[in-house]
Amino acid sequence: MPADPRAVLSRPAPDPDHTVAYGDHPDQIADLREPAVGGPARPLVVLVHGGFWRAEYDRRHTGPLAAALAGLGHPVAQLEYRRTGQPGGGWPNTLSDVLAGVTELPRLAAAAMPGRVRATPPILVGHSAGGQLALYVAARAPEAVGGVLALAPVADLAEAYRLDLDGGAVAELLGGGPSEVPDRYRAADPRTLVPMQSRTVIVHGEMDQQVPAMMSRDFVAAARTAGCDITHFELPECEHFGLIDPESAAWPVVVAALRSLHEDQRPIDAASPTR
Question: Which keywords, in A-to-Z order, does the entry hold (predicted)?
């Protein structure tokens, strides 16, 4: 683990190969990275970045993650969306942007990278707030999602509001608390959207100081009770940012989890999932 776990957020990465627009707003775009190795076409991997839905964080901090996945042979799209603190961000546009992007990007990526993108629903990789957004899309449009890898997801918005994660981030996203805008929580909160049809893998670090690991434990328990196909890895000695850092000790588990979704089988030979 790097001395400063946040170093990955500003680490330089190669420029993307293409940038495409899935809508008219300047933030309705995605950076595309072509697979660095040859081989058959693979499903598109859509990265949904975190940052507690706030404008100060954008897709660029997932550059090292995106470059590493492209290096492993995956076609990758770094999805951008409107965020709180900027015009149009928050409810409902932040969520509808990600839903629209996931729906449109396989077609756009296939046109930009001929022969590299398989004509199947994409695999979503969401980190932190991006994990919430990925789970939301999987619940709302299961036919558009080939699987979800949620890394330290904010999987319970009502609890995140109660814990005041990142100083009111959930209230800024939804426009209030659960008692003020209950319909919005019912519509957006992964905890209320189970069961989900998409194959899902959750990875969380025990040392996470931004999103408590207990949130994933509780979400997975509820999802399993509802009959979801879900696997959960909780990693000791891992904090929040190591999950998106290809130089961290958590990286082999992230790669194995993504491979399991690509191959439609459970992660193996990386760590023991919680049961």
Answer: Hydrolase
